[in-house]
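Whiteboard transcription, Tuesday session. T.W. wrote the structure tokens on the left side:
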């Protein structure tokens, strides 16, 4: 069955190439342009179909072929996320940000005090 699909895909690919070449030739002439553009679109669809026939179904339709292994991994991931305490992580992050903000404020106040002292010495 796989060999038959591959053979059919190869024949369809050759047909798509011929139709595409004919579409390009018709598109070159301005008068036959309305015939060439639909032939090019048909060639694109034929190429897509031929590749889908040659490739395995899991590759050509990955969304439809989700198996038990993917569902198991999804359950494991869900359980791993359920173990994480989001509130605790948020509190830690807020506390750390608060501490760094306080430290930055202290440094800024020290620098401004020094600058004020330096400016007051210059003015007086």
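and on the right, the sequence the group agreed on:
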């Amino acid at each position: 069955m796989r060999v038959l699909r591959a053979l059919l895909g190869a024949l369809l690919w050759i047909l798509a190439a011929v139709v595409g070449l004919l579409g390009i030739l018709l598109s070159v002439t301005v008068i036959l342009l309305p015939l060439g553009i639909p032939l090019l679109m048909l060639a694109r669809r034929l190429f897509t179909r031929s590749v889908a026939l040659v490739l395995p179904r899991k590759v050509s339709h990955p969304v439809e072929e989700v198996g038990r292994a993917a569902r198991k991994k999804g359950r494991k991931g869900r359980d791993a996320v359920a173990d994480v305490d989001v509130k605790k992580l948020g509190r830690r992050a807020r506390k750390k940000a608060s501490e760094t903000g306080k430290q930055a404020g202290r440094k800024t106040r020290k620098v401004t005090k020094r600058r004020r002292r330096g400016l007051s010495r210059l003015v007086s």
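Someone added at the bottom: The mean pLDDT is 79.
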